[in-house]
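New here. Your pick:
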Amino acid sequence: MAYYLTDGIYPKWSTFIQSIPLPQGLKAELFAEKQESARKDVERAFGVLQSRFAIVKNPALLWDKEKIGKIMRTCVILHNMIVENERNTYTLSDTSEFESGESSRSSQVEISQPTDSPSNFVNRHGIQAQIRDQQKHDRLKADLVENIWQKYGNLDE
């Protein structure tokens, strides 16, 4: 199940992962630092797109996921083209911190078309129950804390 990095105003659903407001211990502190950093990066990137493209700023509630995905991908591509075109005017001496290596992430989004069958309604109701399951939220958050610790913690040892 996919999840979103959020701040404390969102409900404790399995799809929303908030930071830890007062982290106790090294694992919790590291998780809070990494979660807040990633969330801020996404917010900044989205803010850049909103300031550059009015279509991103306006509500898109009436569009389907596929159309929104295509619009966002197009805006990102156009933004990158603009940045590439203006790159010669920048005076950055070291750009290595902005360059990334190979990534295992995929930008593909699975899109499923809803049907009006009764079984789809039952499935959707079950999925909503899973999303709102606070125990699942707590397990996911604990797993993420542990995963971050395994990946970035204990570098001294």
Observations:
- The two ends are 33 Å apart (CA to CA).
- Confidence is low (pLDDT under 50) at residues 103-109.
- The first strand starts at residue 4 and ends at 6.
